[in-house]
Amino acid sequence: MNRLACLLACTVSLSLASAASFPYQNPALPTADRVQDLLSRMTPEEKAGQLVQINVTSLMVGNGYTRGPFDPDQLSAVLGKAHVGSVLSGGGAAPVPNTPAAWAEMTNALQTYALNASPLHIPLLYGADGVHGHNNVLGATLFPHNIGLAASFDPALAQQVATSTGVAMRATGVNWNFAPVADLGRDPRWGRFYETFGEDPAVVAAMVAAQVRGFQASPLTGVAATVKHFIGYGQAPDGTDRAPATVSASTLKALLLPPFQAAIDAGAASVMVNSGSLNGEPAHASPQLLSSLLRSELNFGGVTISDWDDVDRLKSVYQVASSDQDAVKQAVLAGIDVMMVPTRADDYSGIVAQLVRAGTLPMARLDQAAGRVLALKFRLGLFEHPFVNASEAAAKVVNRDLAYRAASASMTLLKNSQSGGGPLLPLSARTPRVLVVGPAANDARYQLGGWSVDWQGVPAGVNVPAVTVLAGLKANPPGGVSVTYQDGSRPADVQQAARSADVIVSVLGEQPGAEGKADSPALALSADDLARVQLLHSLGKPVVTVLLAGRPLDLRSVLPASDAFLMAYLPGSEGGRAVADALWGARSPSGRLPFSWPARPDALPSTLASPSSVPPLFAFGSGLSYTQFAERGLDINAAARRASVTVSNVGPRAGQHTVLAYDGSGAARHVVAVGTVRLEKGETKTVALTWLQAAK
Questions:
Q1: What is the pLDDT of residues 455-508, one digit of tens each?
Q2: Which of 131, 145, 315, 681 pairs with 152 at a CA distance of 20 to 30 A?
Q3: pLDDT of residue 694
C-alpha cells in the first residue's frame, strides 16, 4: 500500500500543480475568504458530502465491519460520486496489519483517492477516538484513562498527555480526535464513567480545557479536538448509557455547562452531541440545545457532529422522525453539521442534496454546515499538507516516560494500616517474601480498560506492549525482597504459596468494557474476585489490595479484608511500573479521589453537589501519603483568579503533595484552585495554585 500511496500522491501533486490557482488554494488568505470562494465553486452534491462521515470498514471489502483491503466500488460510490468529506475509524476499525505505518499508509491512500476524485481537490477529515493515547493503534502508548488522570488534579499534566496523543494521531494521518469527554462522572454505574474527569465541574472544566489546548497545540502536528457529549449525557437516573435524562435548568447551568464553556473558550474545534434525550427531547433534534444554547449562549463557532448513527436513532429509537429524509432534515435544521453514518454515508449525502434541491433544506443552512467543515480542513492545513510520512509514525506513537509519570501521579492510597510497628506500606525488606495473587496482576487488559486496540478493550490473544503489575513488581524490588505469583485459580495452590509469604498483594480488576457493555448496576467485583478476597483474608497474612478499575466499586467485603488499599484506576501501558513504585515506596502516592466513593451501590448520588444521606466510604479528595504535609496561609483572591498556599513536609520522607483549595462548605463546597508540589523531608515552599476555569 505504501508504494501505491506514494505513486498516487505524486499524481495528486502533479494535478494540483497543473491546476489553475484559485483563491481558496492560497494559504495567505483569511480562512473565511477561502471558504466562501470554495463554496462558490461547489455543487449542492459536493457540499452535501461534507455533512457526512463514514466508518473506514465500509470502504473495505466485506459487510461494512470487516477489516481488509479497500473495495474500489465502495471508494467510487462514497468518496467519488457521493463526495463524502470525512472518514472515521470507530473502535477497532484498523488497517491490516494494525501498525502505525499501516495507519499512515491507509490514510494517505484515502486522501489520495479523495483528492483525485474531487474536481476541486478537497481533502478528507479523518477521525478516531483517541481517549487515552492513540488507543486504536497496536503498539501505541496508552495513558491512564481520564478518571485516573483526574486524580492528579494537574491540568498541565493533562495537557502534556493530550499534546502527545495529538502528535501520535496526526503522525498516522488521523487529524480529528473525538475527545475529550466533558460530561461529569456523577454516577459510577454508568459504563463511561472512566472516560470522565470526575464529579466536580470546576476540576472537569480545567482538565478538559487543558486537553483541548494540548490536542490543538499545533495545526500541522496536532488534531482537532471534539468536546463531548453535548449535553446531559451520563445523567440517566438508573446509570445506563444512551438513556433519557431529566435535568433542571439550575443543574444544567451550575454543573453540566461549565466544562463545555471552558472547552469552547479554549478553542475546541468541534462538539459531539449527546446520544440520548434531555428533558424529553432527543438532543440531535433540539434547536434549543444545538442552536440557542450551544451557538448563541456559549458562542460556539466550530463543527457539531453526531455520535455513531444517532441521526438514524431519531427514526428507529425516538420515533420523532418518520423517515430517513425526515431524520436528516430535523438533525441538520437543529444544528448538526456532520452526521456520523457508519455504513450509509453515501445515502445520507444524497438525502441532503435532495432536500436542498426540493427547497426543504435551505441552501444557506447547507452552506453554513459545509463551510464550517471546510474551515476546519483549512485550519488543519490539509489543503497544503494532506499526507503524512509513514516512516515516522512508529516513533511518534510511543511516549512511555509520560505515560509512567501520568500513571504515577494518579496512584491513590486510601488505606494503610499499622503492621509490625509501622504502616504496612511501603513494602520493604521487613516483608521480604511477597506473594502476588490475581489474574489482573498479569493481564494488561485489566489496566488498559475499554477503548484499547478495540472498542471493548484488547481482544483475546492480542499482545500489547505494556508493563503489568506483576512485571512491574518483579522488575526492581528492594534488596532482599523476592516476588512470587499465583493467578488464584487454584485455592489450594494459593494457600500453599501463602504459607511462606510475609505479605500478599491482591490485585483485583474489572473486565474491560465500553459504553453499554460496561454499565454496572451493582458496582460489583466478580464472584471469583470476591471469593479470593475472603480466602486471602483467612490466611492470616497482611494483605495489600490493588484495584484496577474505572470507577468506585462496592468494597463492603473488600476493605475490611485489606490492610492497605491502593486505587490504581485504569493506569495504561506503564501502569505496572507506577503501581510497583507506589508499593515499594520509590514514589509516594499523591493521587486524590476525583469523585466521592459511595458506601454502597444504593447510596447514590454521592457527590459534592448532591450528597447522599449515607456518608461516603471515601470523600472527594481523599488520598494518603507515606509522609505528612502541613498547609498554612491559604491566600485566595477570587477577583484576580489567584491563590497560593505554604506547604511543609513534616513527615519522614520526600513526597509529592496535591493541594485542593475549596470555597464554601457542605453541598455548596467546590474546588477553586489546585496545585502540586514535591518536597524533601523538612522542606517548605509557597505554592502558586492553578485557578480553575469554572470557579467563580
A1: 999 999 999 999 999 999 999 999 999 999 999 999 999 999 999 999 999 999
A2: 681
A3: 54
d(CA 44, CA 511): 48
Beta-bridged to residue 277, according to DSSP, are: 282
Query: 11-42 pLDDT, tens per residue?
Result: 454 444 444 589 999 999 999 999 999 999 99
Spatial CA neighbour of 510 closest among 457, 585, 576 = 457
Residue 544 and residue 583 in contact, taking contact as beta carbons nearer than 8 Å = yes
Distance (Å, rounded) from C-alpha 123 to C-alpha 373?
A: 11
The C-alpha atoms of residue 590 and residue 413 are separated, in whole angstroms, by 8
CA gap 439, 437 in Å, rounded: 7
Give SS3 for 449: coil
Q: How far is CA 411 from CA 146, 175, 192, 194, 568, in A?
A: 13, 32, 20, 15, 5
Provide the residue type at 450 as one letter: G
CA distance 102 to 87: 16
The kind and range of the H/E element at 670 are strand 670-679
Residue 598: helix, strand or coil by DSSP?
coil
What is the CA angle 182-186-191, rounded to 5? 80
How crowded is residue 644: how many other Cβ atoms within 10 Å of its Cβ?
17
Residue 600 carries which side chain, given as an amino acid letter? R
pLDDT at 4: 42
Do 650 and 630 touch, CB atoms closer than 8 A? yes
Rounded to whole angstroms, how far apart are CA atoms 558 and 661? 31
Q: Report d(CA 573, CA 444) in Å as an integer.
A: 8
> Is residue 610 classed as helix, strand or coil in its secondary structure?
coil
Closest by alpha carbon to 369, among 92, 86, 598, 17?
86
Nearest to 535 by CA among 481, 497, 502, 584: 497
**Do 379 and 31 touch, CB atoms closer than 8 A?**
yes
- List 503's β-bridge partners, or say none: 434
- Provide the 10 A C-beta neighbour count for residue 464: 15
Q: Is 303 helix (H, G, I), strand (E, B) or coil?
A: strand
Nearest to 277 by CA among 318, 337, 239: 318
C-alpha cell at 214: 494540548
Element holding 40 (H helix, E strand): helix 31-40
Q: What is the pLDDT of residue 609?
A: 75
Spatial separation of the C-alpha atoms in residues 565 and 551, rounded to whole Å: 15
Beta-ladder partners of 642: 637
Instruction: Determine the number of helices (DSSP H) and then strands (DSSP E) in the chain.
Output: 22, 23
pLDDT in tens, 435-454: 999 999 999 999 999 999 99
Q: Is 519 labeled as catalytic in the residue annotation?
A: no
Q: Among 307, 310, 519, 581, which one carries the catalytic annotation?
A: 307
Q: Which triple of cell numbers denotes residue 229?
A: 457529549
**Quick one: which of 656, 655, 629, 633 has its CA closest to 644?**
633
Name the residue among 123, 112, 126, 102 with its Cα closest to residue 5. 112
Query: pLDDT digit string (tens) for 610-638?
Result: 888 899 999 999 999 999 999 999 998 88
Bridge partner list, 678: 656
Contacts of 543 (CB under 8 A, 6+ apart): 503, 504, 505, 506, 536, 537, 561, 562, 563, 564
- Name residues whose C-beta falls within 8 Å of residue 86's C-beta, 6 or more positions apart in sequence: 50, 52, 53, 54, 124, 125, 126, 127, 176, 338, 373
Distance CA 62, CA 95 (A): 14
